[in-house]
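Blinded run. Sample ID left blank on purpose so nobody reads anything into the name before looking at the predicted structure. Input follows.
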Amino acid sequence: MKDLLRTEHLSREDVELILDTAAQFASKPMRSKDALANQTVAIYMTKSSTRTRLASETAVAHLGGTPIFLRGEDLQIGRGETISDTAKVISGFASALIVRTFAQSDVDELGAHATIPVLNGLTDTDHPTQLLADWLTIREVFGNDVSGRKFTYVGDGNNMAHAWLTMGAIMGAHVVVATPSGKWAPDETAIQSARNIASKTGAKLEVVTDPLDAVKDASVVYTDVWMSMGDPEAVRSEKLKALAPFAVTKDLMSKTASDSIFMHCLPAHRGEEVEAEVIDGSKSVVWREAFHRRTTIQAVLYHLVRGELTGN
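Blinded prediction complete.
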């Protein structure tokens, strides 16, 4: 497996290997400080970023490499150079490429034409590195055995909903995604792809429209912002009205398991998708999640450049 372009490309063995290594990087960040010695990693982002940028640059540095940050306007790709030509040029200078952009097809094309590992740092349809950070946080709290536990995502049926269904399928977990019906529901193609994986792993996937039923006895309640980057401002009023019943409140959390936790990929809008009392309360693990963006990206880079991920 040369690249990590989509969550669905990971095998259960890949995920476990990445999480094991990331846990080691959490306690000893510099344990593989020569893995990328005298090498560079290009970090190309057309979307603004706090966690992905900081995590990526720090991960490269902890592996002994030099991160080179590139905005969309920094490259000739913004003036008509093709993605394939860009991929070939970057491959001549860097040992890996991390991409955070809008279209999944752009990341796929970069992976197809680059001779170096390409890592998806976020697209409009997927977010594999976030799910790895989420799952490492879950493993720290609940251990490796998630049998009998229920993991619920509530809110917009966006890239995080897709990635949660997919990772849950890979890990053989019980995942419930609760969103409004219609235009704010998850993409049917993403749902079917996750269900295809679940049919082989024994995972239980549910896509529902009732948030209260979805969180009943859940071990994890997860949400994301309601207005993602790229959403047109013209839909704000309609979208926020449709998503209002899916806000994570103290009352919603009271329906969950006694040892439940609250998770959010951040940034958060207190008073919209989550109450301040929840995200800043005792059940919240959002800062540990954010910390693990570095450990998991570091682990993915470490194993990709060594050719140690097998894919599914």
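Unblinding after everyone has recorded impressions. DSSP finds twelve helices and nine strands in the chain.
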